[in-house]
Amino acid sequence: MSVFSSAYCQSVPVIDMSVVEVREDIPVGAFAFQIRAYDVDDDTLQYYIQGPNAIYFDVNKQNGEVKIKNRLDRETNDLFPVEIAVNDGVYPRNVTKLVYIAVQDANDNAPIFLNIPYNSEVPENTAVGTTIFTATAIDADAGLASTVTYTIDQVVPNDAHELFSISGTTGHVVLMGPLNFTEKSPFYQIRVKAMDGGGPLDDTNVFQSTEVTAFITIKDVPDMDPQFLNLPNMVTIDENSPVDTPVFPVKARDPDTGINDPIRYSIEPSNPPDLFKIIEDNGEITVQSQFDREALLEIFGSAVVKLKIKASETNHNVNGVVASTVQTLQITIGDVNDNGPEFYECVGDKCTKKNSFTGNVDEHSSVGVAVADLKIRVKDPDQGEHSRFELLLDGPDKDAFSVTPTTGVGDSSVQVTIKDPNIVDFEKKRTMSVEIIAKDASVDITFRATVTINITDMNDNIPEFEKESYVFYVDEHCKNGTIVDTITATDADELDDGKITYKLVPNSILTRFDVFPNNGTIFIKNGELLDREGTSSYTATLQAIDSAGKMGTTVLEINLQDINDQKPVMNRDIYDAFVNEDQKLNLVIQARDGDEPETPNSKIQYHIEDSFFSTNFTIGLDDGVLESNGLLDREAIDVELKGILVGSVLAKDPDQTDFNNRIFFTIENSFGNFIILSEAYNKGYRGNLTVDPVFLLDYESSMKTYSLTIVASDLGENKAVTKVEVVVEDVNDTPPVFPSGFTVNVKENTSLSGPLGTIKGSDVDTEHFLEYMLVSAECHCRGIKEPCPEEWFSVELNGNVVGYSGSTSGAIDYEKCDKAILTAKVVDVKTEKGQNSTQGVVTINIEDINDNAPEFIVIQDFYVVLLERVEKDSSVGKVYAQDRDTGENRKMNFKVTKLEFVSSEGTFQQDMFLYTDSKVQEDSNGTFFVDIRSQKQMNTDQRGKFMVEIQASNPDGLSTTSVVELLTIDLSFKVSLRFRSPVSEVNENLPRIRGVLTSATRATVTIFNVDSETTTQRAEEVTVLEAYFVFANGSALDYNEVNRILNSEEVYTEYGAILTQFGFTGISTTTEGTKEVKTEVFIMIGLMAALAIILVATTTSLVCIRRNYKRKLKASKAMNTAAAVVIENQKTGPVVPGTNKYTREGANPVLNMNIDTATDLGFDEDRSSADRDRYGYNTAFCSTLDVSVIFIGRSFGCKKAQFVVSPDDVHNQEMMRTVNRAYFRIGMLRINSLDYNIDMDMTEKDTMPMMVIEEEDEEGFGSPYIEPLGAALAQREKKRGESPNLTFENPSMNTTDL
């Protein structure tokens, strides 16, 4: 620094600075530094900066404050000098000093990559850890801000970020994972970021960074095996297909798509061999030799051929070998109906073809009983419907038998069953023969088999007597052992020759009669009991019993012949007669004789024994008429006879005169029952005591003894008194009494060793002897009164009610009848007068015991099980049973005792995973039932049937077993039947619907679900019924088969109307199954959907462009003639045909034109005239509208844009499209006519025919712009200048591109 001295001794200013630090990021105009200077004289200083670098600064001359004028850049110049000058205004020259500006760094530079781009090609087999490339970046800043750190900011695709890493200090990008050209990505974008260490910038600590993208291309190498595009797969080829018939095109590719090596195809050795071949170059598999499906089944056990297809690359891979892969093509040999149903005899698993069989059956077996020992199976080796066959019966005895089943599919066991038991009679025919005809249902192939049936003799005939009844006569009281007669029966069964035994019933008859069991001789067992006067005739039943217990009967009537063993007996002990004197007595004396009437033994003769008055009377010898000998004179008879003489009393009066000794008798207490008459007797008088004639004594009344006081008095009223006791003697004249409410109880099936009870009648008569007889018997059987099925009960003479143990069908059975009502009578054999018997009722209650085991009821032959739907504890079937016992005895429990699975591979024992409900339910009919349930989910791969053995047992241990079949069916056989009826109505008709479907398809119909298909409230409800059509052999009908059957003429004629009544509309199918979710499948579906969308969009765009262009082209052509069209009534401006634009005068140009509707304008050139005829196009105009309406088929009226098309029209969709187009095609001119107008003069134009035509547009009803032609015409007129005032603007179209 130079120091100048002043002449005036003044001091010069001093600049007090040498180096100034200024940061490069100070903005222009901002303070940079302060010039430090002073003057010892304290003069005012002025400041300056000079020199070439002064351009960076501005200085305030007054205060020395320096500001940035131009931005500093450390990286360009980090240290430079400036000349500082100051002046104190005294010293004439500036004081200067060179001051250095040290520019401090600011982080104003980002790192810069070197050697870019970093693109590289990397083989896909590059080892992990290899450096792919190195990123290098520099930063011009200083210090920490110049330090560069590297990171990977982004990798595309996003999931590849883990494949690469970068060294933060060196920038080496390293491969961290394996590459794969095919499965990962053939290209990667790696965005590398270089960031400095940060530093101040604009008073903020800033980090600067730069990014660069590296493109990594993966180079494919042959490291993958070929890949099949359509294998594994399944295909079907019919048997007997010709050689070279195409089977399947195998497609494979080289997954190394960057190499795409050609593929060669071959077939690996397979079994069976040499059936198919493959073209090496293109993979086409064809038939090499003809094959028969049934032969393959017989030899290899399967009609499925599994081909191992090998795909090999042409060149070697990275390992130096030819890459290849093998996959399976499963070829199912399709069935052709080339076989018929043949007959086999199957024993166990071994079956042999036969056409003759022999069986046995008992004669007169019930309808439906199968002929035994027949092991017939019919097999048609074809498949599905091709294996369906029909079975018919022919032969000499076809009317006696039937064959079951009548139809079959594939393989079916065949039985010959009884159809008419009456024809199957050993006694008529011992061997019978039928012929089974098996006929293929589709083709004319028939096989026959002869069945010889040996009829087994059964004891089916009962012994028969020559007569239904016999009448015999024997003397009463004859000797024991007297032979009545010998009656024998014959039996048509050979088994019963010499084995018939005889027996008399009821047991009560055996006290008097019996029969020798071996020869049928009837004899007297106790003649003393044979009293004709007691019982004159006996009725017995003679039973002839064969070796099987079958019984024939005849009725025996044994009449007792009278012997004169009875004495006549007077009907009355005393006959009283009263007659007036002077009249003759005429009294009939009657006696009876117990011997047979009207025989000498019973003839009675009457005599009068000698007595005091015997000479006064005579009696008829034969008729017993007692008459007096002449007129009676009371005074001439000493004794007056009145009433019944009881007795006499004697009295004497010692007086000697007649007057004084006459005695009269009176009774003081006669009770009104007795009278006494006096008569002279033996020097005295006798009083004859008699019963009043108007009164009858009754022993059964309370008065059995009468004490009478007899008074004897004379005329002098002298009296004598005596006591007389009259004892009434009993006469057997009252009938016996049968006890009321007599009831006994007996348990069924019990041994009846003694009487069940004893009837104890009563008789008030003193002398009586009661005997009891059975009059009739009826039983309560199943709630109905009817004759008892057997002679279970009888009544013995002593009144014992006994059970008859000789019943032909066994002991008393509650299950047959629960009550017996016996009508019996009690007889007093000593009755002398009046009725001798009385009838009564004996009620026998039969009590139930637990003597019946449960009986299973087969509701359906089998149950269908959908294995895919079986969950834990879900029901797979039901079992039903009844017990004929009552009360607690009929209750039962069920349990599963055995479980087997039967399939085509055999029968296998299963774990007991099926069980029955512990709670047994009972329906209104008294049937018990339970559900069969599964303890687990069932294996969905099992195809066959489960044989479930169920045991039903009651509390006392009586049990029965039955087998329930559960057929496993695939969900694919589900058929959905649609009904236009509510769910409730379908459920109500479900039994009848099932019955109709079963009859139509001959399959068992199992219904799993009934649900509504309707989703909207107002829509008519549609019900879907999910059903399976299954046969007993495990086969089922699928959708196609059910559809074919229900649509056949025969079925439709018979059942169509019935199904229609239930609302049936059709069937559909829903195939369910377990589907494996594969990502590749969804990717392919997505790609296909995307391609479809692109294709649709492209096609739509092209169609729209084409139509738009055609429309514009037509409009352009129309402009050529628009101006030339002149209408009389239109004064100015051209008409605008085909539009609804009004001209200036408000007229409709279309209506103003002379339109000839017969002219074809040709706008529908895409449709043939036949189509137009078919849809019935015609046109009409409505004078009040500005559009004309196209009618389709029928008139729609003239309402603008309101077109109605019948939904029943078979061409509905096409018609709607036509209607849509018609809305926009009204009023258009035919282009050919417009073109023609160019060459026409005005006269021709005035008469030019016009008509309504259709414009080629299908945009729908929505667009309001129907005048693109008008806009084009206006544009043309505008160009010509002929009608400058007539312009149209149509925002929907611009014709400038024409």
Quick structural gist:
The protein has 1298 residues and is mainly beta. The chain is built from 13 helices and 84 strands.
Tell me what portion of residues adopts beta-strand conformation.
Answer: 35-45%
Could you tell me the mean pLDDT?
79
Q: Major sheet: size, sense and barrel closure?
A: 5 strands, antiparallel
Derived from helix and strand composition plus strand pairing, the structural class reads mainly beta
How many DSSP helices? 13
The largest beta-sheet arranges its strands as: 31-30-33-37-35
Number of E-state strands: 84
Low-confidence stretches: 1-8, 638-642, 1071-1078, 1121-1274, 1276-1298
The proportion of residues forming helix, as a percent range, comes to 10-25%
Give the terminus-to-terminus CA distance.
88 Å
Shape: elongated
Please give the radius of gyration in angstroms.
Answer: 67 Å
Transmembrane segments: 1081-1105
Domain Cadherin: 14-113, 114-228, 229-343, 353-465, 466-570, 571-635, 643-738, 738-856, 858-993
Pfam family, one: Cadherin
GO molecular function: beta-catenin binding; cadherin binding; calcium ion binding
